[in-house]
Design goal:
The complex is a heterodimer of chains A (255) and B (80). By secondary structure, chain A is an alpha/beta fold. Chain A contains eight helices and seven strands. Chain A has a seven-stranded parallel sheet, sandwiched between helices. In chain A, β4, α4 and β5 form a beta-alpha-beta unit. Chain B has four helices and no strands. Chain B is mainly α and 80 residues long. Chain B is 55% helix and 0% strand. In chain B, α1 runs antiparallel to α2. Chain B starts with a helix and ends in a 6-residue tail after the last helix. The chains are: A alpha/beta (255), B mainly alpha (80). Chains A and B meet through α3 and α4 of A and α2 of B. Chain B: This is Acyl carrier protein. Chain B: InterPro entries: ACP-like_sf.
Chain lengths: 255, 80
């Protein structure tokens, strides 16, 4: 893939990426490293985090925790705070709330436990991450937050009401926090992927996959690297006058 | 600089007020300089100066300079 981003747009910047071991997460970590960022990669599985090959490990710091564990999230930010104050890493500039789960379940068979789990991972956890990140960023009055939402939340999809609602909540928070945090120099944007070839979508049977692609103007699935490029754009100072925006990366998908 | 001085200076830096403004009685949202935006900057400044990370409940309770000191004491910051 040909990159259109100039080299080093994230020099002297630290970025935290949740869901770093997934398809989009891995692509994004590589792109951020290529742009000179120091990257904290967050994931639940230590072995997976440590086995990821990003070509270089000099600027990578793994953080193993569950994004829904409030105390673990605080500990993770405490580690970042310590490394910043000790001069080990540059100040926290970016947060990408990429961790997410996708539950497909019709209304009548959606248990409250499953619904809460969906909301916990896709909305409450990103919200708590934004609370801590905004505090670290506000001191320097500079920062950029990118939330990974979904085109499903923008347009709805039968059988995915819980997932759509959780992502719609995050979209609402994105737009509101863009206004709230603008006075302290923090931008908040979102990327809304359509059908992307990642572990989240690999369970689709060929027929179901084709049906989705028929509703996509570009007639193909997206590549994680294409989503990563969009996130990188919103994360970096290249989009310095853009906040509160939801950028579709969906090949013009109509769910 | 002792911790009381550090506390006062953190308020001065974060809120952009004069040192004499920072008294125990100074309360959140009673002066233009200490609004919700400045509150977040203040929290960030206190966390940096005292090398702590505050719980959200403590941030909500931090409604005055006096409360800030009491809350920081919970994090083993000594103001004696």
């Amino acid at each position: 893939m040909i990159s259109t981003s100039p080299k080093g747009t994230l020099n002297n910047s630290t970025v935290l990426i949740t869901g770093a071991t997934g398809g989009i997460g891995r692509a994004l970590v590589s792109r951020c490293l290529a742009q000179g960022a120091t990257v904290f990669v967050a994931g639940r599985d230590q072995a997976t985090l440590e086995s990821a090959d990003y070509s270089t490990d000099k600027q990578i710091f793994p953080l193993v925790y569950d994004v829904t564990d409030e105390h673990a999230v605080k500990d993770a930010f405490r580690q970042i705070q310590k490394k910043v104050s000790d001069g080990v890493v540059p100040p926290l500039y970016g947060l990408v709330n990429n961790a997410g789960i996708m539950m497909e379940s019709p209304l009548s068979v959606t248990s409250m436990d499953k619904l809460k789990q969906q909301l916990n991972v896709n909305f409450l956890a990103p919200y708590q991450h934004m609370q801590y990140a905004a505090r670290l960023m506000s001191r320097l009055r500079k920062g950029s937050i990118v939330n990974v939402v979904s085109m499903v939340s923008e347009q709805g999809s039968a059988g995915m009401s819980a997932y759509a609602a959780s992502k719609a909540a995050l979209t609402g928070a994105t737009k509101s926090l863009a206004k709230e945090l603008s006075p302290v120099g923090i931008r908040v944007n979102a990327v809304a992927p359509g059908f992307i070839d990642t572990p989240l979508t690999e369970h689709f049977e060929p027929e179901a996959r084709n049906k989705v692609l028929q509703r996509t103007a570009m007639q193909r699935a997206g590549d994680p690297a294409e989503v990563a490029e969009a996130i990188l754009y919103l994360l970096s100072p290249q989009s310095s006058y853009t906040t509160g925006h939801v950028l579709p990366v969906d090949g013009m998908f109509a769910p | 600089m002792n911790n009381q001085d550090k506390l006062r200076q953190a308020f001065v830096t974060a809120l952009g007020v004069k040192p004499e403004t920072v008294t125990d009685e100074l309360q959140y949202n009673t002066i233009a300089e200490w609004d919700s935006t400045a509150h977040m900057v203040l929290i960030a400044e206190l966390e940096n100066v005292f090398d702590v990370m505050l719980d959200t409940d403590d941030i909500i309770d931090m409604s005055s300079v006096k409360h800030a000191r009491l809350i920081l004491q919970k994090y083993d910051i000594d103001f004696a």
